[in-house]
Amino acid sequence: MTVSTDVEMKNASSPAAEKDKEKTKVDVDAQSIQEIKDQIKQIEKAVQTKEQRFVLRVLRALPNTRRKLTVPVLKSLISDSSLNSFLEDEMETDDPSGSSQPSSKSGKVLPEVDAYIHLLVLVRLIDNKRYEDAVICSNKLMSKITSENRRTSDLIAAKCYFYHSRVHELTNNLDKVRSFLNARLRIATLRNDFEGQAVLINCLLRNYLHYNLYDQADKLVKKSAFPENASNNEWARFHFYLGRIKAVRLEYSTAHKNLVQALRKAPQTAAVGFRQTTQKLAVVVELLLGDIPDRQIFRQAVLRRALSPYFQLTQAVRMGELQKFNEVLTTYGNQFRTDYTFKLILRLRHNVIKTAIRSIGASYSRITPAKI
C-alpha cells in the first residue's frame, strides 16, 4: 500500500513539476535574452565612441554566451529573416508552444550588431553538429562581412573568420577556404587590422598543417609579420603552429622555445585541450633534444591522463629499452597519429638505440681486467 501511494503521489505532482520546469526554462531564456541585448548595447556604444574595448568585452563573453543560446533566445533577437530558416528545424523540440516570435525591430540594425547575431546563430549550428547548415550560414555571414568596410567591425569580423574556417574543417573542406583566407589577409594587412591579421595567419597555418604542407606554412611565417598587438590567445596559437613547423624541420631548440611560449601565453585556468596538445608536442621535442621532461609535468591533474602514453614513451627512451619503445608505438600508434606526433616519435628510435648502447658501454666499463 505504501509503495502504490507513493507512486500515485508522484504521478499527481508530475504536471505541477513539469509546469515549474517550463517556467524555469522561460525565466532562464528571458535572462539570456536580456544579457545578449546588453551586449548589443555595448556593440552600439563601441560604434558610436569608436572604442573597440566594448566589442572586445562582448567577444570575451562568447564562451559563456554560447551555452545559453536556445531557439527562443535567438528568435527574439533575429532581424534578418533569412536566418530563421536555420532555426525552424529545432522549433518542435526547443519551443513546443511556438510562442516565441521575433521581436519587432524599429530602425535599421547596425552591421556590427547584425554580424554578431548571425555569428551566434552559426555557433548554435556548430554546437548542434548541423555542419552542412553551418556552412551555408557561414558563407552568408562572410558575404555580409566582405560587403562592409567599417573599422568598427574588425574584431567581430576576426571572430567570424575563425568560425568560418572551423566549420569548413568540421566538414573536411578546409582547402576550399584557403584562397578566401589569403585574400582577406591581404586586405587586413593593408587596413592595419591587427586582430584580423592574427586570426587569418593562424587560420592559414592551421589550414596548411592540416594537409601537411609544412613548406608553404614556413613561407607564410617568413613573408608575413605577426602583429605585436594581437591577443594572447592568438599569440599562443601562433607559437604552437610555429613549434610544429620547426619540429618537422629539425629545428628542435627553436621549436621547444615556441612551445614553451605557447604554454605561457595560453589561459592557465581554461583551454585545457590546447595545453594538453601543446604539452604532448613539447614532450616529444624535448626527447628529440636528448633531454628528459620533468616528471612533475606528467603529475598535473589536467595533464595526467592525456600524457599517459607520452610518460610511457619517456620511460622507454630514458631506459634505452627498444622493445618497450616498440610496444608503446604499437599500443598508442593511433593516438600519436591523432596528435600529429607519430612521425616525430619515429625519429626517437635512434635516441633509444644510442641510450641502449651507452648503457651497455657503461656496464662493460665497470668490468676490471682482473675480473676478466
TrEMBL record:
One protein family per Pfam: TPR_PSMD3_N
Gene3D superfamilies in alphabetical order: Tetratricopeptide repeat domain
Domain PCI: residue ranges: 236-372
Key word Hydrolase present: no
An individual GO BP term: ubiquitin-dependent protein catabolic process
Domain of life (superkingdom): Eukaryota
Residue segments, region Disordered: 1-28, 88-107
One cellular component (GO) term of this entry: proteasome regulatory particle, lid subcomplex
Compositional bias annotation for Low complexity: 96-107
Transmembrane segments: none
InterPro entries the UniProt entry points to: CSN3, PCI_dom, TPR-like_helical_dom_sf, TPR_PSMD3_N
Keywords, ordered alphabetically: Proteasome
Residue stretches of biased makeup (Basic and acidic residues): 17-28
Keyword Isomerase: no
Protein name: Probable 26S proteasome non-ATPase regulatory subunit 3
Protein source organism: Diaphorina citri
Lineage: Eukaryota, Metazoa, Ecdysozoa, Arthropoda, Hexapoda
